[in-house]
Amino acid sequence: MDYRYLGRSGLKISEITYGNWLTHGSQVENDVASACVRAALDAGITTFDTADAYANGKAEEVLGAALAGERRESLEIFTKVYWPVGPKGPNDAGLSRKHIMEGINNSLRRLNMGYVDLYQAHRFDHETPLEETIAAFADVIRQGKALYIGVSEWNAEQMRRGQALAREAGFSLVSNQPQYNALWRVIESEVIPAAKELGMSQVVWSPMAQGVLSGKYLPGAPLPEGSRATDAHGGANMISRYLDDDILSNVAKLRPIADELGLSMAQLAIAWVLANENVATALVGASRPEQVAENVKAAGVAIPAELMERIDQALAPSIIRDPTLTVSPGSRP
């Protein structure tokens, strides 16, 4: 495993981060989830990402239990706040001072930890003054409940405004967590340049385009039984945008490139994301321990420039680049 700095900070994180969005607390049993976490640790992964809204808090509980007994100082734990949790009352979502303060306390209780390394604004809250949000995050840091603050799916203007206020408050935003992969490149034209300017790096989710870039979905073929695309509660709505025969045909053109590098298509997809210098880590999940062992083989892989160009050529008709697609809900969900 290789390690990279998170933004313009001194914190190093593993190039591959284990994430438990669609698995822990919902799709897989707790003992399997624990086995996946153990496989991640065995592979050298030290960074783990979750959120309070994942399975309405259960994902944090499962991750905390799976990591119990590990040396806390040897781990980097990320969680997030914004989406509805609990009974989903009027203050159970967003980035108000009330929700942030209650959110961090509840996350630490579920994780059974004294602090998290990175606390992230899971989206931009249009209903709360940004000054209130940043002041609350500053207090979370001063209280020692989080060491660093990041955001997720903020656009370039929101990141600039947030960073300016954060620096006035005595800290810096160090990261953004966007969807990014060889098909979904909406952050390239505006978000990544802004992040470089602001000293922030990307913590990427969906590096395999919800599994499409793994090559398991074939044009004209039935959806694989038990796959994410067939699970209404496990991300079927997210993957549907990619399940077009033209897109799948273009993805299939990547197989010879993966073969040439001695990689699986899933490993190629992760290595492609890590080739962007502004990416600190790629989030991968797993429903089986062996998936973790395979995915980590993408760490440290260098893809030659000519093969990067061939990837672009193969996917060109299917690549989505519109920067306006980096968007947060206009009102709290």
UniProtKB/TrEMBL annotation:
Pfam family, one: Aldo_ket_red
Organism for this UniProt entry: Arthrobacter cryoconiti
Record keywords, A-Z: NADP, Oxidoreductase
Ranges where the NADP-dependent oxidoreductase domain occurs: 15-315
InterPro entries hit by this protein: K_chnl_volt-dep_bsu_KCNAB-rel, NAD(P)_OxRdtase_dom_sf, NADP_OxRdtase_dom
Similarity comment: family membership: Belongs to the shaker potassium channel beta subunit family.
Protein name: Aldo/keto reductase family protein
